[in-house]
Amino acid sequence: MKIDKADFLGSWERCMDMPHAEQPEFAFIGRSNVGKSSLINMLCDRKGLAKTSSTPGKTQTLNLFRINGQLQICDLPGYGYAKVSKKTREKFGKMIGYYLKDRPNLHCLFVLLDLRLPPQAIDLDFIADCGENQIPMVLIGTKADKLKASALEENIRAIQSKLQEMWEELPPLIISSSEDKRGRDEVWETIKNALAH
Ligand SMILES: Nc1nc2c(ncn2[C@@H]2O[C@H](COP(=O)(O)OP(=O)(O)OP(=O)(O)O)[C@@H](O)[C@H]2O)c(=O)[nH]1
Ligand SMILES: [Mg+2]
């Protein structure tokens, strides 16, 4: 996908304050530091479009981007970051919850998983919740560049086998790296397919 235009539309703390959009929206979620903002920049070929940081907890609002005047991307805060206060965690939880429930133009939620880690309970719980609420979902494994091929294979299998415990049909899993751009075509292909339906 060639990105002719990528505009930052703004940041909101509440879904209800976000502008209503005709364009389909695609959101990126996952634990703090998993690489959501980096992935958005990689997909859009723009280094500083979404703000990234090596310290977890960087994205604290719902951030919207319009791509090629055709679709929107939402960068969400991370869930489950232990180092922020309980109150802040709850605030992020609500922000995300309302967004997922009340955003009519949300076409697909990309749930990011850090491929360096074994399957995490918090991710599996979040994925199960989304499944129960019938949110269209595609999984993206991140930071694949950090693993050797054998370790990568092993962890993909571990993730799939955990998912199999709760799903008969597994949601798609795209392997990605914001460093070497792995997975870029697959994510855009998923978006294009969702737009066609
Ligand atoms: N090696 C490698 N590092 C990555 C990759 N993606 C992200 N990172 C690094 O991981 C850290 C976190 O990246 P972010 O994109 O800010 O993560 P986030 O999920 O948006 O984090 P929050 O906004 O805090 O929830 C940064 O130091 C990135 O450079 C990747 O694919 N490969
Ligand atoms: Mg972020």
Would you mind describing this structure in some detail?
- With 197 residues, the protein is α/β, with parallel strands linked by helices.
- It has one domain: Rossmann fold (3-Layer(aba) Sandwich), CATH 3.40.50.
- It is 35% helix and 21% strand.
- It has 5 helices and 7 strands; from the N terminus they run E-E-H-E-E-H-E-H-E-H-E-H.
- The protein has a 7-stranded mixed β-sheet with strand order 1-3-4-2-5-6-7, sandwiched between helices.
- The protein is globular and about 45 Å long.
- The model has no long low-confidence stretch (mean pLDDT 92).
- Bound molecules: guanosine-5'-triphosphate and magnesium ion.
- Magnesium ion is lined by residues 36-37, 58-59, 75.
Adjacency order of strands in the biggest sheet: 1-3-4-2-5-6-7
| Helix segment tally | 5
What hetero molecules are in the model?
guanosine-5'-triphosphate, magnesium ion
Going by CATH, the homologous superfamily would be: P-loop containing nucleotide triphosphate hydrolases
Strand content: 15-25%
Query: Could you tell me the radius of gyration in angstroms?
Result: 16 Å
The average pLDDT score comes to: 92
Class, according to the CATH hierarchy?
Answer: Alpha Beta
Q: Runs with pLDDT <50, length 5+?
A: none
User: Would you tell me which CATH topology applies?
Assistant: Rossmann fold
Shape category: globular
Query: Sheet bearing the most strands, described?
Result: 7 strands, mixed
Helix percent reads 25-40%
